């Protein structure tokens, strides 16, 4: 009788634990909370970037794809022809994710300028068809806005930096055109 009672109690506890685990809420962030974003979904694919950066013409190839269990959109940007003949071609990998606990986008911008400038994370908020990221660099804040133009099926990237006088100045204005 004791053995039967112990078996019933252990079975009940095991089943209760299994039921609780099945009904436990999914954590705000983690591998079971997949990042789905209808706006950034439009950026997945191949693009040609055209515009100006620091007053110079820019032409880059851009490819974006979901990676790491659909937690990040990896944007790989690569300059086609360097602005100066002696310059290292610009290349960047940007990892865009979402912090559910803080309710904001996060961007890890890594490029040919190395670790020092890539240690600053960008944080962004969505406003309709745009996400504006703010990077608080040691030498001053920097804004990068990704704006989807649904009627044209294009993206607009606008970059601004705050100068020594505290005035926001244009850094770059680019358009991304889809590549077939």
Q: Could you explain the architecture of this structure?
A:
- With 180 residues, this protein is mainly beta.
- It has one domain (40-178): Beta Barrel (Lipocalin).
- 14% of the residues lie in helices and 50% in strands.
- Strands 1-2-3-4-5-6-7-8-9-10 form a ten-stranded antiparallel β-barrel.
- Strand 1 (45-53) and strand 2 form a beta hairpin.
- The longest helix is centred in the N-terminal third of the chain and has 22 residues, at 2-23.
- It starts with a helix and ends with a strand.
Helices and strands in order, then pairings?
Elements: H1 2-23, E1 45-53, E2 56-67, E3 72-79, E4 91-99, E5 104-111, H2 115-118, E6 122-127, E7 130-137, E8 140-149, E9 154-162, E10 168-178
Antiparallel strand pairs: 1-2, 1-10, 2-3, 3-4, 4-5, 5-6, 6-7, 7-8, 8-9, 9-10
Radius of gyration from CA coordinates: 23 Å
Number of helices: 2
CATH class wording: Mainly Beta
CATH superfamily membership: Calycin beta-barrel core domain
Average of per-residue pLDDT values: 87
Q: What string, H for helix and E for strand, traces the elements in order?
A: HEEEEEHEEEEE
The name of the CATH topology is: Lipocalin
Uncertain runs are none
Spatial strand order of the main sheet? 1-2-3-4-5-6-7-8-9-10
Helix content: 10-25%
How far apart the termini lie comes to 74 Å
Structural class: mainly beta
Examine the secondary-structure arrangement and name the CATH architecture. Beta Barrel
Number of strands: 10
């Amino acid at each position: 009788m004791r053995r039967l009672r112990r078996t019933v109690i252990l079975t009940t506890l095991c089943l209760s634990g299994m039921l609780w685990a099945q009904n436990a809420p999914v954590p705000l962030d983690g591998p079971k909370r997949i990042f789905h974003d209808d706006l950034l979904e439009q950026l997945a694919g191949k693009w040609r970037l055209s515009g100006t950066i620091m007053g110079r013409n820019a032409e880059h190839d851009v490819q974006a794809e979901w990676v790491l269990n659909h937690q990040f959109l990896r944007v790989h940007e690569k300059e086609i022809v360097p602005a100066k003949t002696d310059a290292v071609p610009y290349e960047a990998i940007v990892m865009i994710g979402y912090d559910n606990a803080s309710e904001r986008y996060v961007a890890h911008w890594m490029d040919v300028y190395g670790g020092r400038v890539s240690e600053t994370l960008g944080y962004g908020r969505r406003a309709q068809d745009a996400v504006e990221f703010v990077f608080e660099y040691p030498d001053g804040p920097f804004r990068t806005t990704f704006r989807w133009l649904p009627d044209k099926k294009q993206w607009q990237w606008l970059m601004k930096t705050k100068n020594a006088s505290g005035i926001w100045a244009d850094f770059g204005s680019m358009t991304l055109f889809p590549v077939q």
